[in-house]
Structure formats: C-alpha cells, structure tokens
Known about the structure:
Blueprint: H1 4-35, H2 41-62, E1 65-66, E2 69-70, E3 84-88, E4 93-97, E5 102-103, E6 109-118, E7 128-138, E8 141-144, E9 146-155, E10 160-173, E11 179-191, E12 200-211, E13 217-228, H3 229-233, E14 241-248, E15 254-259
Antiparallel strand pairs: 1-2, 3-4, 4-6, 5-6, 6-7, 7-8, 7-9, 8-10, 9-10, 10-11, 11-12, 12-13, 13-14, 14-15
Amino acid sequence: MNNPKKYLINTFAIAMLISAVSCVTSDLEEDMTAVNKGISSDEISEMMGLMEEVDLMIMSTLQQDLSQQRLLPLLDEMTCPGTVITRDDKNGQISVDFGSGCLSAGGLEKKGALTVRYTDNFLSKGSLLTVSFEDFSVDGRKLQGEKTLENLGYDATERKLKFSSSMKDFKIVNTDAQTFTVNQNYFRELELSNETEGFRIYLKGSGSLAAENYSTTTFEIVQPLKYMQECIALGSFNPIEGSLQISSKADKSTIKSFESSGCSSL
C-alpha cells in the first residue's frame, strides 16, 4: 500500500520542479526576445551624425591653410563660451576643455575635455591623429575611448582632403544610460568651402553597433553620405543625401535613405 505522506511529498517535489523549469523557460524566452531585438536605424544614424560632429570639431582645432584655402572654424573659444583650447605644437598636441558645460551657437551642450595628438603636420599625407576623451559628452551623450584619423592626401586642384577614421570598442552612452559599443572604419572626402558655401563631407565605409540585450547590428554605406557645414552649424547632423544598409540577426537587412534639399533630412 502506498504511503500517503510519501505520495504528497513526491507530488509537491514534482510540482516545484515543473514550476522551476517553467520560470527558467520563461526567463530564457524573455532573454532571447531581448537579444533578438535589433538596434533601430534612427539610433544608428544619430550616433553616426554625432561622430561626424566630433570629427569636424577635431579638424577645426587644426585650422591650418590648405593651398591658401582655410578650413572655416567650427571650434574656437567663442563658438562655445567658456571653452579653453590649449595648443602645444612642439609636442603635437591640442587640448579642448569645455568644462562643466557650454552651449554652442547651434544649441549643442558640450561637457568635459578631449585631447588631440598628431604626428608631423596633420595636413601632410600619411600623418596620424589620435583623439581621447575625458568625461566628454554632447547633448547628454557620453563618448568613451579613442579614435584614429589618417590623412590620405590632399588634392590641391579639386581642393579636397581625404582621410580615414577608425574606432575599436568605442563606447557611446545615450541619454537613457544605454551603453553602445561601436566599431567602425570610414573614409571621408572633405571638399573645402568657398565664397558662397561651406565645406562638404562625403562619407564611405562600414561598422557595427552592439549593446546589452540587443543583437549586434552592422551598417554599411551603400551610397556616400553627404554632410553640409551649414547644417552641422545649426545642430543638424543628418546627411542630406546617401543611403545606409543596416543588418542584424534579429531583423532583415534594410536600407535607410537620406534625401533633403535643406538641413531637415529624415
């Protein structure tokens, strides 16, 4: 004859086991759902635009002549009141300190500091430039890590400067405190400004973006992205033309296109 007490204990143990397996399965399903979530195209294009702002800011600190054509400055002590720029040409270093925060003419809030180290004259082909960030943020988005730029040559006839930009395991923390890891390799062609319009940047390349609970997302520029100085000065970092292919394990490959006659590209 079966022992009723033993039967109840076994039944309770089985019920607890089923409950535990159910909870684990539920948690795994939630984790898988989170991991299978792709990073949005808007988040990617916004971060790309942010890095364009940073690169142009870096280029502007150099402010050197190119065949008697001068890069119009995006950065000096007056463009963001309270900024302190320290130049050490002997050691090839420029420090830009925005302090506890300043507001640029375009309405961007910048905080912290960045240091630019360069070899030789950065406007000479083959020279390198390394940028590091210290408690640095733009409009509440924090940047952590290093990035490297290399001069690929200047065409005096067409007034174009070509350079590459790379980042490895670079961190960007958005306004929701979500940390993204960025890896990228870009090629830029900077068309110098003239009497009637500001400079133009044509961007090519690819990269990837990863974050906790998100599927790693890769992006590749299909048609060169075009940025205008006038738009950047107004705080608009979207390109006015070009297209971007975005892929992840979670989502099908999609194309995000940009086309605008002004500075309000979507």
